[in-house]
Please model this.
Amino acid sequence: MSRPYISVEIDRNVRSVAKNRCGYCLSPQKLVMARLEIEHIIPVSKGGSSEESNLWLACPICNSHKAGKIEAINPVTNEVVALFNPRTQVWAACFPSSNTQHIQLSEQIQNHLSNYRY
Model:
């Protein structure tokens, strides 16, 4: 399957609105050793479009982990739930923000960055 065409204008708009941060791990472009990717929130394989409203930024690791998924099993409730939508949902409202979890997230980001060689 060929990659859908995304115009330079849409690419710039998405990067600007996303503030050059991954929508999933919140890593800013300056900390990611590869270019943040324009990703389809609803994958083309699941009927998603390449319209700006369905696009956001993701670091290569988050984008490859999400891949063609739109839902996952909640490990606490065992229910199938929709994945986080960085365009329409507020990150802080969806993920707890206790200090311990912030430290864990920081460690995850550091581990994420250590996957790149420079």
Observations:
- The two ends are 32 Å apart (CA to CA).
- Helices lie at 8-17, 60-66, 91-94, 99-114.
